[in-house]
Amino acid sequence: MKTRTVIAANITLLMLATAALQAADQKIAYNARNGGNMRIEGTANIIHPTWAIVSPMIGGMLEVGPGFPTEPGQEATPGKIEASGTAFMTVRSFKSVESDGKPYSDRMDEVTYEHLKEAQFKKISYKLTELTLKEVAKSKDAPYVFDSTGELTIAGTTNTIKMPVNILPGVDSKGEKRLEITGNITIKMTDFKVEPVDINLVVGHIKTGNEVKLVFKWILGQKKAVAAATQ
C-alpha cells in the first residue's frame, strides 16, 4: 500500500510539473528593438508656444500569455490578457527639438535634466500591471486596441496610469516576429513632484505649463529560445 501511495504521489508531481512547463511554453517574450521613441510635449509662455523633447530609444521587455495576437489580423477574443513588462528611457537620452525635428538647445536640455532630477534618478520607467484587449484588428494592417494599466516612475515618484494602446503584430526584415506598440497620455508633472520650468534666460523669462503629453512608439522583437546545451 505504501509503495502505491509513493507511485501515485510521484505521478501527481510529474503531471503538475508537465502542466507547469506547458503553461510556461504558452508565454511569449519580446525584447525592445531599435526604431522606437518617446516624445514629451508641453507648452511655454514665450519663444515657442509648444516645446518637445525626444528620446530615440525605449528599452525593456514584454511577456504575454495565451490569447495575445502575435500575427497580423489573427482572430482574438476581447478580454484580459496575461501580460507583464517593463519599459525605460534614460533621462539624458532626451533632447529638445524644433518642430521639424532638428536639435533645439543644449541649455534647454540641461534645464530639463535638472528638473527631472537626473543626477539622482537616471531613468524614466514603466511597469505594466494589466492588459485588456478591447478591439480586435479590423484588417491585417490594423492594430489591436488594448486598455493598459501600469506604474509610471518619473524623478523617483511612481503613479498608476491607465491608457489605451495600439498593438500591431508583424515581422521584421529578417522574418522575425515583432510588435509595434503606440499610445499617448497627458499627465501633470507636479503629480511626479517635478516643478514646471520657471527660469530667466538671455531670451527672456521662460515658464512652462504643468501638463505634458507623452507620445510613444515601442518596437519589440520576439525573444529567441536558448538552445539546450549538448551533452
Chain-wise SSE layout:
Blueprint lengths: L1 H25 L1 E5 L4 E7 L6 E6 L3 E6 L14 E3 L1 E8 L4 E3 L8 H10 L7 E13 L8 E11 L2 E15 L5 E12 L9 E4 L2 E4 L3 E12 L9
What report would you give on this structure?
With 231 residues, this protein is α+β, with helices and mostly antiparallel strands. It has a single domain, classed as Lipocalin, CATH 2.40.128.110. 15% of the residues lie in helices and 47% in strands. The chain has helices at residues 2-26, 106-115; strands at 28-32, 37-43, 50-55, 59-64, 79-81, 83-90, 95-97, 123-135, 144-154, 157-171, 177-188, 198-201, 204-207, 211-222. The strands form two sheets. It has an eight-stranded antiparallel barrel. β9 (144-154) and β10 (157-171) form a beta hairpin. The radius of gyration is 23 Å and the shape is elongated. The protein starts with a helix and ends in a 9-residue tail after the last strand. Mean pLDDT is 87; it is low at 15-24 and 227-231.
